[in-house]
Design a protein that fits this description.
The structure holds three protein chains of three kinds.
Chain A lengths: L10 H8 L7 H5 L3 H7 L5 H14 L4 H10 L2 E4 L5 E7 L2 E5 L6 E5 L4 E3 L4 H14 L6 H14 L5 H10 L3 H17 L4 H12 L4 H10 L5 H50 L7 H22 L7 H23 L8 H23 L15 E4 L2 E4 H23 L1 H11 L1 H6 L4 H23 L11 H14 L4 H41 L14
Chain B lengths: L1 H33 L11 H27 L6 H20 L12 H5 L15 H25 L4 H20 L11 E2 L3 E2 L2 E2 L3 H27 L1 H11 L1 H7 L3 H27 L1 E2 L6 H14 L5 H20 L4 H15 L3 H13 L16 H4 L1
Antiparallel strand pairs in B: 1-4, 2-3
Helix pairs in contact in B: 1-7, 2-7, 2-8, 2-10, 2-11, 2-12, 3-5, 3-10, 5-10, 7-8, 7-10, 8-9, 8-10, 11-12, 11-14, 12-13, 12-14
Chain C lengths: L1 H21 L6 E7 L7 H20 L7 E7 L5 H14 L4 E4 L3 H14 L3 E3 L12 E3 L8 H12 L3 E7 L2 H16 L7 E6 L7 H10 L6 E6 L5 H10 L9 E3 L4 H4 L11 E4 L8 H14 L8 H20 L4 H8 L3 E3 L5 E3 L7 E2 L2 E5 L5 E6 L4 E2 L13 E4 L6 E5 L4 E2 L5
Parallel strand pairs in C: 1-2, 1-3, 3-4, 4-5, 6-7, 6-8, 8-9, 9-10
Antiparallel strand pairs in C: 10-14, 11-12, 13-16, 14-15, 17-18, 18-19
Helix pairs in contact in C: 2-11, 3-4, 11-12
Classes of the chains: A mainly alpha, B mainly alpha, C alpha/beta.
Chain lengths: 542, 385, 429
């Protein structure tokens, strides 16, 4: 975050930072050199470490920032033999050491030769705030932004001076806005005059988010009548905006839940919806996809870590092929003997799902496996008053993309044509020269492969364990049946509307009751439309 | 003579064998438990009596499923719900029977309510202190749910897979509901720690054997009721509905009435099975509502032989015996065995164990024909959905 | 023909099964029952405990067994099916004639087997932290009671982190319900306002946490330092933490302290965004003691995988097993009554550098550790109670149990003695 140096060193600022201390003796600490202070970190308890952090920030030495950062990240260690402090990163037989101030290489150390300088949450907060104040004038706007946000969170009144200086120099509009917000937050937290505070409250209320509400509410503790009124007004303003956005936020949550349902159900819309196989092993295809992702990530972690961000993209085709191949094997080995006996496919595939779960349990163990998120899927961004997480955005995009590809395959390829022909009139299709056996196998493979692809996406939000498939199977069937068996668009609309319905019920009824109400709704809906949302019409039905 | 012939017609050959086996089990097990010394190979331990009792309850559940699925083509994936509701009705009575012997010593409130600081008994717990009331509820609650559910579903002609899936949704919804502690049914832990029933100590060997005998009796009775239904004129209509629903309707039968009747009866049977299950097992919890349990029960029927009644009993007992045995003998890989069994049965024994048996019998004695009531294995298009 | 053979095979199986429950076992070995789910939803947690028990028994046999006999583990799979737990327990006790059973994880599985152990008079060691409100003669609770986990954690957050506003989030079952009830009373007693406590329950395996995490965020934006006390169970944790990380809730802003999240649960998550969130346990794999190093090394060797972690319930089994061994040696027999009498007061080393003792209420003494999650999936201890905490079977913070105590020693011999009425048997009428 703050590895760069400062453009200009401001002694004043740094001395002010010093006062972030709640205990420590600043006067005494000031006289120590950074190197001395750092050496004292060896074996220090949390309180002592906190004092040293403040003293370090107060030295104003540019080399201190990386040390603080390493401390916050838990990369600061001391050697047991001589209590010398180093920045240590995993590597070699244990750790690679570098000198904290000069960054010079200091050799290696085994795992047991060094001990970590321990940090806890309040220390991390102190470090974050100290680094924030120190780097407000970094040449890198990204760093300045992060610094401003750190100060905004710390609401440290002592930072007002350095914020003023930084705001005066700031050219970047967005960074300055955040800095001004941070300053307002700090003012509200200081013992400034009521007039200043009221102005600050207005600055804060300009952006209506949770943070603003938190700052304003915190400031109203022990405020004078006049200030209290202004703050309450500002809070109301923020809350009104938040309430407006929360409806939109619910739609978003609903769409995102719906996209998960869509992903889980879309493969089933082929194997069950199109082929009529009550495929209880569908969930296990999803699970296979998730495990393929895990295996791919393990290989990448061990052999080519630089590819990690691409791991999901690499896993996609592999998951499709693996789950598809398993699906085709199932179709050839079992399902094909059961055509025309749909309810019996339920029993055979139920048995299969037990076997597949146990296979995975034997191969990978019963515990959860770690599937990491690539950097482009982590974190969130704000859109108006909405907080959108990248992971969810990509899952929605991905679900819709899979859906679109599937529709295209069914509508516009010769395979899709053959597939539809076989499901509508097998004997006629056969006499037209379509290899119906082969088409069956490919169709089932396609459905399973898509389930596998869904598994890649679901590995990002759920447990990767042998039970993964079980948790989606019922929802998947409900979505397909609700949407109308045999109709892909029904599955799309069904999944998204059930997702949104669920998320609108949740705030009022709670998570459990919400889900029960959705189930009751589906049961009643089926009474009204016994063949689902988009029923197939005509003679094909009977 | 007339009576015997009539009875024979009612039971059928395989049914007669089944009843004979049940009678033998009713006599042998208590005797072997009480009078044959423990060291003997023929001794039946109390643990085994409990386990056999459990198998019998599952056989009743399987029987009730076979009645609707095998004879009327209604594949219910939610029969576990009726079983569990019957069990809860019984459990609530047993809970009230505990009285002041709970760990907190509250004479009215069950332990879990004391635990959640409830002040008074919720309204739906009243009356369950009376045995007869609980027994009525055992029949009434599953029956009423099945009636309402069936009334709605059959009236709107929800059939085939759609019906299967919404029955599954029903049991899933009930499971979630019973998991909620606010519901007043003990949440995840369910009802447990029962002491006695009608004054008999539930942990005494005598009570165990009594409950076991009751289960044998109930199973035999249910079997006869089912046979009675399927052999009657009503049963003929049911089979017609199974094989060609639309045609039956066009002939002029009110298909939905027949379906509703048999669905409700079947649910009540499942409820009784659950009520007998709970005192023997000693716990009822929302896990019994899990859709997987209902699916498994359907699998028992398929394994035994759908549409034969006797097959359902064989499947219910056989599969569960296999499960008990393999979870002890092959704890690491028993799921392979169980899963494999389901696949093999559907592939190679489409009519289940009983089908194989009668096929084998036909080979040795070609004069006899297989049960004509077995369903066609190639189901009609409308069920294929 | 093939089918006939199969049927004959299954008939043989039936006969074998009957024999299992009837045959009298030769007494050259002492059998130890292991009752943990190896399939179904709980396999994820319980399989590890089965392996840990196998390792402990192997180690004991290498040391020469017990009373001159070898120990023989008997493993069964109750398949996460609660009634099956009772059936399997009965099979272990009457069929296999085991001397003691180590097993169960969920409360409902323990409740399911309780009557069986009582009726057949055998011994169960239960290794998981639980809701308390129970003390049964035949059961030894080696996991934490609420006062050995929840209350020290809340104290830590209030004192060190200055938390004033609390979200109590849990899965809807008896452990979170009780723990939250106890915590709520405790917090209200210590001056927290009712509107500063938010309680939320979710179903088992809940996977869509968007709304709830957003609610927590909004509850946390009322200007007071907020923390989440999580009793979310097992499977639901991974998506919960993933959602926390994605919505950017950092431990520095709203810390989450969990009572059901250990090393094993974290093994399924990338913990880098979770650094600083807390857990309260009685053991962490990172505990820097020679006993622990030895245990971890033995575990890695036994399981053949350097990456497998150890966790708190494993330590509970380690303590429980060693206590049982010591009690059997003290009594000179594996007879249930003798062991139940001799085990009280037995003290064995735990893995965090101290000793744990079995108390008369069948709970044990333990240190309480609070740890912060690190980026390698381990916990770093940030707080440790100065002494050992005695497990309290009946919570002092619930109105109906505050007068109850348990003491299974001779004169009292009661699991729910009422100190107010001076009678055994709960509150009384």
């Amino acid at each position: 975050m703050a590895r760069s140096c400062f453009s200009i060193l401001q002694r004043v600022t740094l001395v002010l930072v010093l006062a972030t201390a709640f205990l420590g003796g600043p006067a005494q600490a000031q006289s120590d050199s950074p190197a001395e202070l750092i050496s004292r970190l060896a074996g220090a308890d949390f309180r002592e470490t906190e004092r040293i952090v403040e003293a370090l920030a107060a030295t104003g030495d540019p080399a201190v920032a990386p040390v603080l950062e390493a401390l916050g990240e838990g990369d600061l260690f001391y050697r047991r033999s001589d209590n010398a402090v180093f920045i240590a990163r995993r590597g070699g037989a244990g750790y690679l050491l570098t000198d904290p101030l000069t960054g010079a290489d200091a050799g290696e150390a085994g795992r047991r030769e060094v001990t970590k300088v321990r940090v806890n949450n309040s220390l991390r907060r102190a470090v974050r705030s100290a680094i924030g104040t120190l780097t407000l004038q970094s040449p890198d706007p990204g760093v300045r932004m992060a610094a401003a946000e750190a100060v905004l969170k710390s609401r440290d009144p002592e930072a007002i001076g350095s914020l003023d200086a930084a705001i005066g120099r700031e050219q970047n509009e967005r960074v300055r806005t955040v800095m001004e917000r941070a300053r307002a937050a700090a003012v509200l937290n200081s013992d400034a005059s009521d007039a200043d505070k009221i102005a600050a409250a207005q600055t804060i209320a300009e952006k209506s988010d949770q943070e603003a509400r938190a700052i304003l509410m915190a400031a109203s503790n022990g405020a004078s009548a006049q200030l209290g009124e202004a703050l309450a007004y500002a809070v109301r303003q923020v809350e009104r905006d938040l309430a407006m956005w929360s409806a939109a936020q619910n739609v978003w949550y609903g769409l995102s839940l719906g996209s998960v349902l869509l992903l889980a159900a879309i493969g089933l819309a082929i194997t069950f919806g199109v082929m009529g196989v009550i495929n209880m092993a569908h969930g296990e295809m999803v699970m296979i996809g998730a495990y393929v992702t895990y295996v791919v990530q393990e290989i990448i972690r061990n052999h080519a870590p630089f590819l990690f961000d691409l791991s999901l993209l690499i896993a996609l085709p592999l998951a499709f092929v693996t789950a598809g191949a398993v699906g085709m094997a199932i179709e050839r080995g079992i399902i094909r003997f059961l055509y025309g006996r749909p309810l019996e496919t339920l029993l055979a595939t139920w048995g299969l799902s037990l076997i597949l779960q146990q296979v995975v349990r034997s191969l990978f163990g019963p515990t959860n496996q770690e599937v990491g998120a690539p950097s482009w899927m982590s974190g969130a961004f704000e859109l108006g008053g909405l907080t959108l997480t990248y992971g969810r955005v990509w899952i929605i995009v991905f679900a819709l993309a899979v859906f679109a590809v599937l529709v295209l395959v069914l509508r516009h390829t010769s395979f899709g044509l053959q597939m539809r022909a076989v499901t509508q009139n097998r004997r006629m299709a056969s006499s037209m020269g379509i290899r119906t056996n082969w088409t069956d196998a490919l169709t089932f493979g396609l459905g399973s492969g898509i389930a596998g692809v869904a598994g890649v996406a679901l590995s990002q939000i759920d447990n990767v364990s042998p039970n993964l498939g079980q948790s989606y199977i019922i929802d998947s069937f409900l979505v397909v049946v609700f949407g109308g068996v045999g109709n892909l668009w029904g599955t799309l609309v069904g999944a998204l509307s059930l997702g949104v319905l669920n998320k609108f019920l949740e705030p009022y009824a709670g998570a459990v009751l919400g889900k029960i109400l959705v189930l009751v709704f589906i049961i009643l809906f089926i009474q009204k439309r016994p063949r689902g949302l988009f029923a197939l019409k005509g003679r094909a039905v009977e | 003579m007339m009576m015997t012939a009539r009875f024979l017609r009612l039971t059928g050959t395989s049914g007669l064998i089944l009843l004979a086996c049940l009678a033998a089990a009713a006599i042998y097990v208590p005797v072997a438990n009480q009078f044959i010394p423990e060291t003997s190979l023929f001794h039946v331990s109390t643990a085994s009596v409990v386990v056999f009792g459990k198998y019998l309850c599952f056989a009743m559940l399987a029987l009730s499923i076979d009645l609707v699925w095998g004879y009327c083509g209604i594949l219910s994936l939610g029969h576990g719900a009726f079983f569990a509701l019957g069990g809860y009705a019984m459990g609530m009575h047993l809970m009230r029977e505990i009285g002041p012997r709970g760990v907190y010593g509250n004479p009215i409130l069950p332990d879990f309510m004391v635990f959640l600081n409830w002040e008074e008994l919720p309204w739906f717990w009243h009356g369950f202190d009376m045995f007869w009331f609980a027994m009525v509820m055992v029949l009434l609650v599953p029956g009423a749910l099945a009636f309402v559910f069936g009334f709605l579903a059959f009236r709107s002609r929800v059939t085939g897979v759609y019906l299967s899936i919404i029955t599954q949704a029903m049991t899933f919804a009930l499971m979630l509901a019973f998991f909620r502690n606010e519901m007043g049914f003990g949440g995840n832990n369910g009802l447990t720690d029962f002491k006695d029933v009608l004054g008999f100590d539930l942990q005494a060997d005598g009570t165990r054997i009594g409950l076991y005998l009751l289960s044998v009796l109930a199973l035999a009775l249910m079997f006869l009721i089912c046979r009675g239904i399927v052999l009657s004129r009503l049963g003929k209509v049911l089979i017609a509905v199974r094989d060609a629903e639309s045609r039956t309707r066009f002939i002029g039968y009110r298909v939905e009435h027949y379906k509703l009747f048999v669905f409700t009866v079947s649910a009540m049977m499942a409820g009784v099975a659950g009520a007998l299950y709970v005192p023997q097992i000693g716990i009822i919890n929302p896990g019994e509502f899990a859709p997987a349990n209902s699916i498994e029960a359907v699998v028992w029927v398929a394994v035994g032989g759908r549409g034969t009644l006797v097959g359902a009993v064989i499947g219910g007992i056989g599969v569960n015996f296999g499960k008990s045995y393999f979870t002890g003998a092959l704890p690491e890989i028993w799921l392979f065995a169980l899963g494999g069994l389901f696949v093999v049965v559907t592939l190679f024994m489409p009519k289940g164990i009983l089908g194989v048996l009668s096929q084998w019998r036909r080979k040795t004695a070609p004069a006899e024909t297989a049960a004509s009531t077995a369903p066609r294995t190639d189901e009609k298009a409308e069920e294929r959905a | 023909m093939k089918m006939t053979k199969m049927l004959r095979g299954s008939a043989l199986g039936l006969a074998a099964g009957l024999m299992l429950s009837t045959a009298v076992q030769a007494q050259e070995t002492i059998k130890v029952g292991i009752l943990h789910s190896l399939s179904g939803t709980m396999a994820i947690s319980e399989t590890t405990l089965k392996d840990a028990m196998l390792m402990l028994i192997e180690q004991q046999n290498a040391k020469g067994g017990l009373l001159g006999k070898k120990l023989e583990p008997v493993v069964v799979d109750p398949a996460s099916d609660w009634p099956l737990f009772a059936e399997k327990a009965r099979e272990l006790i009457t069929g296999e004639k085991v001397a003691a059973v180590f097993g169960c994880w969920t409360s409902v599985s323990r409740k399911s087997v309780l009557p069986v152990f009582e009726e057949l008079n055998s011994i169960l060691f239960y290794p998981v932290q639980y809701e308390g409100e129970e003390s049964q003669r035949n059961v030894f609770y080696t996991g934490a009671a609420p006062n050995q986990q929840a209350i020290p954690a809340v104290d830590y957050l209030a004192e060190v982190e200055g938390v004033e506003r609390w979200v109590l989030a849990g899965t809807d079952y008896v452990y979170p319900r009780t723990t939250n009830k106890i915590l709520e009373t405790y917090l209200l007693d210590s001056g927290v306002a009712a509107e500063d406590i938010m309680i939320n329950y979710t179903p088992f395996g809940h996977s869509d946490w968007q709304t709830i995490v957003a609610d927590i965020k909004s509850f946390g934006s009322a200007g007071k330092k907020t923390a989440v006390v999580s009793t979310i169970n097992g499977d639901a944790n991974v998506p919960f933490y993933k959602e926390l990380a994605n919505q950017g809730i950092k431990a520095e802003d709203i810390p989450v302290v969990a009572f059901s999240v250990g090393e094993e649960e974290l093994a399924g998550i990338d913990t880098a965004p979770l650094v600083g969130h807390l857990a309260a346990w009685n053991y962490f794999m990172s505990a820097p003691t020679p006993e622990n190093d030895e245990f971890i090394a033995a575990w890695h060797k036994f399981i053949g995988d350097e990456n497998r972690v150890t966790n708190d319930p494993m330590e509970a089994h380690y303590i429980g097993f060693n206590m049982w061994v010591k009690a059997v040696e003290k009594a000179g027999t594996t007879d249930t009554d003798a062991v139940i009498d001799s085990i009280i007061g037995v003290s064995v080393p735990n893995l965090t550098g101290g000793y744990s003792a079995m108390m008369p209420n069948h709970h044990i003494t333990k240190p309480v550790l609070i740890g912060e999650i690190q980026d390698d999936g381990q916990f770093e201890t940030v707080f440790e109670t100065p002494g050992l905490v005695v497990g309290d079977a009946w919570s002092d913070f619930l109105p109906d149990s505050k007068d109850l105590i348990a003491d299974w020693r001779k004169p009292m011999n009661c699991g729910n003695f009422n100190t107010a009425t001076g009678k055994c048997g709960g509150k009384g009428s």
